Amino acid sequence: MDIPELAGMVVPYLTTVAGAYGGAVVQRVVDQSADATADGGVLVGRRLLQRLLGSGRSAQIEQVVTEMGEQPDDEAGRDLLRALVIKALSEDDRLARDVTKLLDDAGRSEGWSVSVTGSHGVQMGRHNTQTNHFGLSPADRPQ
Predict the structure, then answer these.
(1) Are 41 and 16 in contact (CB under 8 A)?
(2) Tens digits of residue pLDDT in 24-36
(3) Model confidence pLDDT, tens digit, residues 52-63
(4) CB atoms inside a 10 Å sphere around CB 57
(5) For the chain, what is the total number of helices (H) and then of strands (E)?
(6) Of 49, 69, 85, 92, which shows the fewest CB atoms inside 10 Å?
(7) What is the DSSP-derived secondary structure letter of residue 24?
(8) What is the pTM of this model?
């Protein structure tokens, strides 16, 4: 896999963790205690960010991720983060291998592909539960 493609897979996880933790994202990620309320995307994002914070681009990535936590819809920030991740991965072969392994361990290698049409609800991933009540009026649905 080439570096820009790898960075394209990493950035959504980083923006997910930034959105979940806000401006304190780096502080929360560096804190080694597990976040019991974090979902899979946030946990993967934490691991990826922890690894990237050990790179030669640590200070730059930290600054941009913190800004993304404060302004999660900032497209320019997302583009800058992607460019920094590309630079960090390009400069360090071991980092690129470690990040690839983190993504593989997160289930990327399973190759999930989901296409949903006309659904009333969707669950993806592992260990999810969803209950759908089709054909019942809201008043007849169990509470």
Answers:
(1) yes
(2) 888 777 775 655 5
(3) 999 999 999 999
(4) 20
(5) 6, 0
(6) 92
(7) G
(8) 0.70
